[in-house]
Amino acid sequence: MALFTRAPKAEPILGQNRLVAHLLSFLTWIIGLMFFFPLFWLTVNGFKEESVASADPTLRFEPTLDRFSEVTEANSGLLSFAEAFGNSFWIVLISTAFVMVLAIPAAYALSIRPMKKWRDVLFFFISTKFLPIVGIIMPVWIIARDLELLGTRTVLVVLYTAMNLPLAVWMLRSFFAEVPKELIEAAQIDGCSLIGQIRQVLLPIVAPGVAATALLCVIFAWNEFFFAVQLNPTGASTIPVWVNSQQKFQGQFIASLSAASVLATLPVVIAGWVAQKRMIRGLAMGAIK
Amino acid sequence: MAEVRYEKASRIYGFGGVGAVRAVNELDLNIADGELLVLVGPSGSGKSTALRMLAGLETVNEGSIFIDDVDVTLKPPQDRDIAMVFQNYALYPSMTVGENMGFALKQAKVPKAERRAQVEEAARILDLEPYLDRKPKNLSGGQRQRVAMGRAIVRSPQVFLMDEPLSNLDAKLRVQTRTELADLQARLGTTMVYVTHDQVEAMTMGHRVAVLDHGELQQVDTPRRLYSSPANLFVAGFIGSPAMNLIETDRTGDELHFGSTVVPLSDDVQADLKASASTRFVVGVRPEHLIQTPDGAPCGATVVEELGSDAFVHASMPHNGTEATVVVRVDGETAITRGDNLTIAIGGPVHIFDAESGVRLGKPVT
Amino acid sequence: MSNAVVDREVDSKKESRANEIKRLERREGWKRRLPILPALLFTIVVTQIPFLFTLFYSLTDWRIDKLEPRQFIGIDNYTSLTEESEKFFREAAWVSVQMTVMAVLFSLIVGTMLAILLDRKFFGQGFIRTLLITPFLVMPVVAGLMWKTQMLNFNFGIINWILNGLGQESVEFATRYPMGSVIVVLVWQWSPFMMLIVLAGLQGQDPSVLEAARVDGASTFGIFRQITFPQLRPFLELGTLLGAIYLIQVYDHIEVIVGGQPGANNLPFYIAQRSIGGGNRFGLASTYSIIVVIASIIIANIGLRVLSNLLEDDS
Fold first, then answer.
1. Which CATH superfamily is domain C83-314 in?
2. Closest alpha carbon within chain B to A199
């Protein structure tokens, strides 16, 4: 059951009457715009002079890109934009690659050729997501310290892999479960090896789902702050830590903070917009499909 | 070209554990070279499991399976030289029709030119030539079914395995395709094992039909003999449409009653009845073997199904102290309507079964 | 050859065959299990083993700023939780409970309303849906900073600007209502998530059932209450579960919006503060962690039962 292809369409709950329907549409537009407004305002502020941003709200101003160049070039703090971006980029890329390498075979063993007790194993994976991060942060910190990994990219790669793995297994399983098992059996009878079955038959079908899963892992890893600030407060820290450091305790900083926020948010928001349908489906329908 | 042999082959779920279920129990079955054998039964009868055991998709927990006298029990599917058509066709959605059909040959490292020739030959047989470059999702249900067939025949396997290949087609296309399929099998002369739940399909297509129920082989025979001489109560009830009238009755000495009439019994049935200690039996009569006669058992018509050439009258008959429903075939021109009274009697072969064991009394009809 | 010998030979042949089948089945079992082992081992090593360490730490008086060796003190840390010295812990726990419950509840209500509004055909439906899900994609740090400096700010926040326009005094939201401020931002981020889950439920309804109800003369409200709502229930439960799991762990928003202010520190923030963040009380803070884990296990147990019901018709 696809979420956004809706034929035959269930009747909407509201809006049998035409006038009511128009009013509701109008209301939905207003609410939608209101929800988005803070982000709109954030973006607008990024193009202002500091003095304009730290004054009564206005839309009448000379837009400038200076804040963006300031925050990207500044090297005042401990962490420059280039460093933070580089760290985030590599940590997100490598951890997501690890997640996929581990999760694809795991999801296979939970759906296409299910092992015995696959339900228990799936529940184990989900349940690790229920383990609050504070439940492990201290030993992780101690171990990282003893291995001299505090302040390195490595520790975040490992932790982000662990953080996203259950989610990826969960989503991929739901995409894999939609593949008819007869397809794999047909490939078996046609004399296809196990690797061939996965590469030639399974992956072409589930590729969009795999991509959506990877994208969601990217988003979560990119946005992660707790581990980054606890384990990497200075050294190899990431974009969220960098954005937070744009908050100053004296002087005007709202415009430059806004510019920094836009830079930090834009990549994943665009990624999320592009893949929204499939991502939502995998996430929400994981339970149902 | 091959014969297939099941020797006491069993599929046991939860093998070795408590509560193990025998999905297929000690199946003994010989399928001759070039034969089209149909496995038929209700859902849960083990027919698909039996087929999948032959394909190598289900473990054979006990017994053996031979293809052409080679023991394939422990071989993986790819080493059995079989081709299978699935109910949902299982076409690879990312490949074109041509690639689908040539996939097995590609796996077997057949040179490209030869592969192409074989695919085109199969496409010609199945009228699929214009569609070779299309993706399965751009085909109609009937065309997809033919692609699935094509994928099987391209390989010229030893045995075709068909798992309800027509049940996703609409009624009209199904009837047409089943004739084509039977014709194709006859032309190719390749052994085929065909699974269906539809007894009409089984009867029209099979050279022989094996009836399964609860994992047990009930009877394997030609369609005609299955119809005229069912080995037990299950087969009697399962084969034939409309179904055989099966009326339970208590014995009165060495006589059995059908409504107010006494059932005419042949000598061998009579002998078996005398020897039996059971008290309850089932009288089986096909609708076309009930005749209207003035000294028959009285009954009242409740429903009349007009089929044109003939009609089936459902009638309520006082029997053994209650009302039993019987179906009688009458001529299409007979003007019987609901509420009419008629008197009927057995005017043809009658089948007697032990009500407890379901076993047939007397010798099989020849 | 006597019959007995033949029998024995047949028997041993049968036995070796049975062994062969068992061996193949075992191999098949391992073949099926093998692909999951790397992921399973990795998860156990990175999440389960550290948890056992936490459990062990919680039974010690360990401080990492002191050189004294850590001492095993049994459940003393746990019993101390009820004492006067631990009133900040109890405060943080209470904040966690209130914050999680309110954030989940309000997100669920807002999300359901949004889903109902979106579940109609209208001009710009896809565009509005895209706008509505965006808050969920935004980095929590950015969400917190943005609300704090541009929406709720005393001097030039939009909300106070509107209040002033209406003739009201400005309010210092983040100091006067620290928890409320955090909850507003959480609801802004999580309503879209709830909306998506409820929307999945609404659009997964069987249209013929709704048509049948309409033919039977049910009113719009009656249909919602008697047909749509029962079908939505598992989705609402799923949303509550996932929301609770994430929201009980909220840290970023608190650090960014109210960081350290009394009255809005939840457990994750307080635990970090008392251990890595300078408190150095690893033993005691581990005890707090265990309490959070126990609370999560209770939620998760209820949640898993819901999920397993959803998975039933799936095998």
1. MetI-like (1.10.3720.10)
2. B94
